[in-house]
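Dear colleagues,

As part of the handover before I leave the project, I'm documenting each prediction I ran so the next person doesn't have to rerun anything. This entry is a single chain, and its sequence is reproduced below.
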Amino acid sequence: HLSWQLVAAIGRVESDHGRAGGNSLNGQGVARPGIFGVALDGKHGTSRIADTDAGQYDADDTWDRAVGPMQFIPSTWSVVGVDADGDGQRNPQDIDDAALATAVYLCSGEDDLGTVRGQPRLGLPL
């Protein structure tokens, strides 16, 4: 069980529904110019995550960065990313793809996210 309200709340916290950093969603729901987190280089309290996507999603071929409205780490996106809107692309900057991928990720465990008791792991990065 996963409510749309929970997915929406995550989107609000992660990127103000695609508006973080001067971004806006275009007519296809894609964040422009693109939402990119800080380099995950182990500095300033970040995890140290060396590049996993050759810069394909995060435009950084040294370190990974969280990307898109739901702030997926590229290695996670490569597993749970989906084409939710049928445009032929799995794009972490696309709010539709990112929202459905969030549901895929959150529902991959055994917790019942329809209950408060089942939600403790939600503090973990995607």
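The CA atoms of residues 41 and 97 lie 27 Å apart. The helical segments are 4-15, 74-80, 95-106.

All the best with the project,
I.
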